[in-house]
Structure formats: C-alpha cells, structure tokens
Write a structure and sequence with these properties.
This protein folds into two domains: 139 residues, Rossmann fold, CATH 3.40.50.10740; 144 residues, LD-carboxypeptidase A C-terminal domain-like (Glucose Oxidase, domain 1). Helices cover 28% and strands 24% of the residues. It is built from nine helices and 13 strands. Helix 5 links the parallel strand 4 and strand 5.
Length: 303
C-alpha cells in the first residue's frame, strides 16, 4: 500500500473552503473556525449551502454535492474542510467528481462520518486528514488545532500518548488507515473497504453499544482485516453504552480480545476522535509507530 498522489502544502494566503456535506450546522461554529483560520494567515470561503438546512441535512443531496464539487473545480481552493459530521456523506459519495479531484488534489479534512471520503481517497492513492472540524474548533485543545495546521502545511510532527495498562509494546511503520469504526464497518464488502494489508489501523467511535462494538470487530476480523495489519491505534470511544443486562466486557476488553493476539503494537487512549484533544492524523501516509513502557509515539514525516 503506497501513495500515488502528492497534496500541495498549504501556504499562508491559500484558500480553505468550508462545506457541510452531511448534517446541518449552526453558523456560530463555522464563523468561529473562519476567524481562527484567518488569524492563522489563510483565506476562507464558506460554501453556498454550508449554513443551510434541509430536514436533518445542510442541503439536499444535489446541493451538498454541488458545494463539494465547486471546491474541487476551483483551482484556488487548497483544502476542503468539512464543517461537521453527522450522517450524510455516503449519500453524496458517488455524486462527487473524484476524477477531477485526482487531477487537482487538495487536502480533505474531517472525521467521524467524513471517514467515508477518507476511504474513497485511500483507494485513489491520496492522503487526507482525519482532523478537527468547525463544529469542534472552539472546544478543541491547542494541540488539536496546531497539529491540524501542521498537517495541512506539511510540517513533520509527532503525537505522544501516555502509557496504558492495555498497551502492547512494539515498533513498526506502515500506512495509516481507518477512522470512525462504525463507518469502517459499514463499508466492508464495498469497493471502498479499507485496505488493511500493510496498514496501521486507527479506530474511534461515539455512543455505541458494547455488543455492537463486538459485532463490528468480529466482522473486521472475519473480513481479513487482521491479515497484514502492522499496528493498532485506539482513539477515544466516547459515551459507550451497555444493555440493561450487562454485556460482561468493557470497551477495552472487547478490543483487546479481538486484536491482542496478533503480535502487533497496540496503543489505547490515543488523543484523537470525539474528544476536545482531537489531534490530526494523516491517512494514507507512511508513519512510524512505537509503543513501550513510556507510552506510544506516532510520527509523521510529511515528505
């Protein structure tokens, strides 16, 4: 697994385009992010329907796809920043002009439901950024936003997470893949399935039942995800739920049961996902990953 495309590094004065490909969003979040990015030296454009409302969504499927494609077709746009997640990206996935994206690659930034787009870009051989979105900018840590800027500007950086009792030591390198586990699971059996072989898998999720977590991981393993996997990074599993009759295992136990016997380094409690300290990860890039008694270290070279 290797990259075939290079994304130009953002420079001060470059244009960042904010669009809402899924759920609607309050304008205050978008304008906060707009001001933050302008203060960082970038120009910002907000898409036509970004602040709209069409039932649950920011716009109809046609409107959301149009906004996304307008960013692709505009050569001045150097990064597409998704305003928020919430369901909806899969609805417009095949209405987006990915051929044009391949001809004029630019950074795609987002997480949660945006994992759908990360998977498509992986199959096109392009890196993308699993990072904070305008919905979360105001509550984000300084490190979350600093790593986002570093990723877009092509600066080398590392993320350190503290020691965890469930960690498994080791050192490896590979292409970083994954994202929101529910989305990774939903794309199994499709042409956008994650390419696990040779990868370091990152997973995170929000408000899932523990039995459903177990179901998703069974499906991942049965689909061949464990074959050739070189490492596992476990981000936040926020607000996980249990049934009235307890499942009998907590989140960490479930994940360890599925991956602990693979002989690969595993890091738990990594600062990424549905938490304020959502550090930016570059999917599709070869990274160095190590876990020892002091914690875990993930390093991006940004070549």
């Amino acid at each position: 697994m290797s990259l075939t495309a290079h994304i130009p590094r953002l420079q001060k004065g470059d244009l960042i385009y904010i669009t809402a490909p899924a759920k609607s969003i309050d304008s205050s979040y978008v304008h906060y992010a707009e001001n933050y990015l302008r203060n960082q030296g970038f120009r910002v454009e907000i898409s036509t329907h970004c602040l709209g409302e069409h039932h649950y969504f920011s716009g109809s499927e046609a409107e959301r796809a149009l906004d996304f494609n307008n960013a692709i077709y505009n050569p001045e746009v150097k990064a597409i920043l998704c305003a928020r997640g919430g369901y909806g990206c899969i609805q417009i996935l095949d209405q987006i002009d990915w051929d044009a994206f391949s001809e004029n690659p630019k950074w795609l930034v987002g997480f949660s439901d945006v994992t759908v787009f990360h998977h498509r870009l992986q199959h096109l051989g392009m890196p993308s950024i699993h990072g904070s979105m305008p919905l979360n900018f105001e509550e984000n840590t300084k490190e979350a936003l600093e790593t986002l800027i570093a990723a877009m500007q092509g600066y080398p950086y590392s993320i350190k997470s503290p020691a965890h009792t469930n960690n498994l030591d080791g050192e490896t390198e590979g292409v970083l893949v994954g994202g929101n586990l529910s989305i990774v699971y939903s794309l199994l059996g499709t042409k956008d399935k994650t390419q696990f072989d040779g990868g370091i898998l990152f997973i995170e999720d929000l408000a899932e039942q523990r039995y459903h977590l177990d179901r998703m991981l069974h499906s991942l393993i049965r689909s061949g995800a464990s074959q050739g996997l070189k490492g596992l990074i476990v981000g936040s599993f926020t607000s996980m739920q249990d049934t009235a009759v307890p499942f009998g295992k907590d989140t960490l136990e479930i994940i360890t049961e599925h991956f602990g016997g693979l002989g690969i380094p595993i890091a738990f409690g990594f600062p990424a996902g549905h938490i304020p300290d959502n550090r930016a990860l570059i999917f599709g890039e070869k990274v160095q990953f190590s876990v020892d008694k002091s914690g875990a270290l993930l390093s991006f070279r940004n070549n």
